[in-house]
Amino acid sequence: MSIRIKRVYEPPAKADGFRVLVDHLWPRGVKKETAAIDEWLKDVSPSTDLRKWFSHDPEKWEEFKGRYFLELDKNREAVAKLAERTKAGTVTLVFSSKEERFNNAVALKEYLETRT
Fold it and tell me: Which of 7, 25, 52, 108 is deepest in the core (most CB within 10 A)?
């Protein structure tokens, strides 16, 4: 299982493998052609309420992950689809947040590596 994480604003690279956008909303100012997204999995993004509550606050990180993991547990079909893709080669979870350490892509990577 090779899972990478990358901001959508960074240029795509061959080493990215299969690029999956894991945000619910399309990133501002990014054209679909430029983003080179292979799949947009809105179903693995946090709910709007959870995303707004968290607001990338590092002090809420652990609680955010717990709540997000519960949401992912309820959405096994989308998670299974993504987990299956990771078995075929490198997958890069693409996100748009300016916050690179405390975001849903980082939490999703942890979830995939420890719970699937």
Answer: 108
Give the CA count within 13 Å in the CB-facing half-sphere of 12: 19
Would you give per-residue pLDDT tens digits along the chain (116 residues)?
A: 699 999 999 999 999 999 999 999 999 999 988 999 999 999 999 999 999 999 999 999 999 999 999 999 999 999 999 999 999 999 999 999 999 999 999 999 999 999 87
How far is residue 9's CA from residue 112's CA, in Å, rounded to a whole number? Answer: 23
Question: Phi, psi (5° rounding) for residue 39?
Answer: -155, 140
Non-local CB neighbours of 52 within 8 Å, separated by 6+ positions: none
| Residues 56, 3: Cα–Cα separation, whole Å | 21
User: Rounded to an integer, what distance in angstroms lies between the CA atom of residue 10 and that of residue 45?
Assistant: 20
Number of helical H runs and strand E runs in the chain: 5, 4
